[in-house]
Amino acid sequence: MNLSYRAEAEGLFSQLVAWRRDLHRHPELSFQEVRTSGIVARTLLDLGYEVRTGVAQTGVVALLHGGRPGPTVMLRADMDALPIQESSEASYASAHPGVMHACGHDGHVAMGLGAATLLARHAAELAGNILFVFQPAEERDGGAAAMLASGALHDPKPDIIFGLHLWNTLPAGRVIVQAGPFMAAADVLRIVVRGRGGHGGLPHETIDAIAVTGQVLTALQTIVSRNVNPHDTAVLSIGMVHGGTAFNVIAETVELLGTLRTFEPTVRETVLARLRVLLDGVTAGMGAEAELIVEPLTGPVINDPTASETARLAALQLVGNAAVGRITPLMVSEDFAEYGKLAPSCFILLGSGNAELGLDAPHHSPRFDFDERVLPTGAALLAAVATRYLVEKAGT
Q1: Which residues are part of the catalytic machinery?
Q2: What is the CATH number of domain 6-183+300-394?
């Protein structure tokens, strides 16, 4: 049984690049991935998969039966782009103003299709099923939760789930796979400070919401530094402050948008409790009021130990010991976390940065691009992880 797929994947290089560049040139936002899902569905049908489309609006689910019965391995790829204006002179730069693939999802789709190609070639050798999930709306709007809510992942229900993300801050070809907490839970925070507006020349008749907000922002900086155990981890960031309408009008309201990132529910509750206390205290002390709205986005990505070991062994065989490693858990979030509620799961990072080629811009940057030479590695890794799990289960 082939547990590497390396040579076969390298043979797909030109096709992987063609898929990726076509998708990059035609990005689609969350729940608008109509063209992308059409390409995915047609390709999978041609490969012999049982394909369901329109799952959670634009998602695609595809099932491959192995030559013998056995468990089901799910492999996930996300498809959506971001509302960012691309800054690139590449021939495959986005043709859609204000929309681009700035996080590598075009590469994820290409690698997913590559893995689907490899596994279809070896279907007769597999003892079990492969379930591919091409997911919409990872960047926003809860695509993973919508896929789960559709019920499409319960027939058959996967026994184990793997996902892979390109990562530009890692050198191309580096593989990160580890058990335990890996990516943080995320909440959106919306804070509205309400004062009393009035004339800029008569401040004594007002309660200046902007002045109050300045004190609120200062106070918020103490929550993590003074209320969270230094051995725990939390990030509280305010990314948007909007208030005021004219130079001579004292603002009545100011709106803030931010995010909270945590791993532990108890830490999350500590931060939110202190946030409410500080907001109430600071604003009341200045004669104003504050409203806090918390919108949970996704839980933390916690990699299952057994799934992680399967992925680690597959990576070792594919790229060698020197290229496989660990990192400090990341405070970014990923809705792949939702799939951990369905079955044991493992999320893998594949380094895609290359500073020498100028391909090292961070994710969500208008300059984002990655080293396409990692596409065969990603396709082979997904196929190898799935195959290894089926072989392990067949031998037990």
Answers
A1: 80, 138
A2: 3.40.630.10
